[in-house]
Amino acid sequence: DVKVTQSSRYLVKRTGEKVFLECVQDMDHENMFWYRQDPGLGLRLIYFSYDVKMKEKGDIPEGYSVSREKKERFSLILESASTNQTSMYLCASSPPVRGQGGYTFGSGTRLTVV
Amino acid sequence: GQSLEQPSEVTAVEGAIVQINCTYQTSGFYGLSWYQQHDGGAPTFLSYNALDGLEETGRFSSFLSRSDSYGYLLLQELQMKDSASYFCCRMDSSYKLIFGSGTRLLVRP
Hey, is A83 helix, strand or coil? Predict the structure, then answer.
């Protein structure tokens, strides 16, 4: 089974802090994604990556950056956390073929910015 | 979620059949996926349709009509454990998966 692991289940950070959310997958998937989930809004794509060192902006990249130095690891960075970034963050990975087996999601990190 | 429309809530009785409809914008459309998410859990993949027609996986089936920009998820023999949120998602030509806002399904005994 593909496993996507997010390093923290719950995080509380202060406004202005730099926050790192880590995600690791163990199936050698090329594609990795970061979403945030808010009530009534579904999942919204922040950033995604097709390969090491590559990154593409999703629909809501403002206030975020990402890093993919190794194939298995995709990090989401909040340069200066703000209260409107309080949310559930979900990482996912997928093989390169569209639709094949779908995306596999991690369990999520619930971030609260105070 | 942008570019997809699905009902916000559906209620059905255990043992019944329920259909969750989804319409989508066609720009860059490649295929339609469905995901299930229980409260507090991660979304899990249910199905993917790239071509018109019905795909069946056990009690769940998914349908796509490209000409109508429409799809649905059909759940048969509903069980209490099927109470969850169901998301229709469009896969676009750049591998991006765009989620709808989700349909909350409540199965009553």
Answer: helix
